[in-house]
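Protein modeling request. Please complete all fields; requests missing the sequence field cannot be processed.
Requester role: graduate student
Desired output: 3D structure, token encoding
Chains: 1
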Amino acid sequence: MNGDGGRDGSSAPDEVWEAFLRTSADSAGDAPKEPSARAREAAARLRTEPAEPAPWRAPTSSPVDPVRPRRRKGWYAAGFAAALALLVVAVDPGGVIGWSHGPDSTATPLARETARPEQAPPADEDGRASLAEPFRGSPAARWANGTAGITVPAAKGTGWMTEAEVGRALTATRDFLAASGLDPAVLRGARPEKAIALMNPHQKDVADFVASALSTPGEEHDPLMLFSRFDPAQARLVGDQVRTRGRLSYREGKLGAVEVTADVTSVYPVAPAGGGDEVVRVIVRRETVVSWDDPSKVATEKGTFTLLSYKLDMTNGGCGASTGFFRPTFGGGASETGTDGGRVVDPYDRTGPVADGGDDSGCGTATRS
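Delivered output (369 residues):
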């Protein structure tokens, strides 16, 4: 992907947006190593200091700070011989999907992630993924399923919110992650209505971006920046789990708002829509910051958040022009050389933030999938 997806009209002219770059997936287990390849990527810059939300009655300001989508960056291996099948997650009525028996359930679950890990998970040489064991050979074999893999911290009174209100904000933020990246219908390409309902309708630039991205996805408007979607005509969902690992954190933001940061990696196994037993994994890491604003100070609606920033890093999400769907490569894929100089990245390494790859795009090699 070339170009900048940013738009003018921000109420915070001091914002500086950069693109973020990560890596593409390679084969799982004993699958052969793939060369670098050209990739479509995208990411939105996490603002170091989010601009102050405009006051509710400021006549010359936007009602909330706009978030300008920038060129997303991600890594995609141009195909692998190994495989997985996309797991669709069913969100339970309570909003939390726990560890359940099923494929790869014999692996000992990891303890929840409560802070940034100090090292990447060790390599697992225990074979390739299969339809019966889609997480085999992956660290995700020990991860929890769905929202059970997302650690929610204890709530305490912060900013304008009481302890109970912070707890509800954290739960609603987790619900957004489930509705945008785990809902079975959304994964199959449906419109993410539940996720959109949690977003501040007064944040016009975000509302416009979402509307354009879902109706006419393209280089500057890609729904994958916020939502996980697959084209059912290209990849079929296999199983009923999406393995996740990550956590929420929060702090007091501008005007007493409660800012919640979500840093979560999700692993989706998929197989070709036309049949066959080849399985590949799509690995998606998102770092999203939302603001639960004081309605007496910021234009918002009850039960909705203002989107402050979002970053995306994806592996085997598809090389080429944006279509609005992850497009994993099957059958070995292409071997076109990318522009990144053959960078190699571990998509399971969560020891640092989503990496800043600058404005260059390219497709590299993932050490594993």
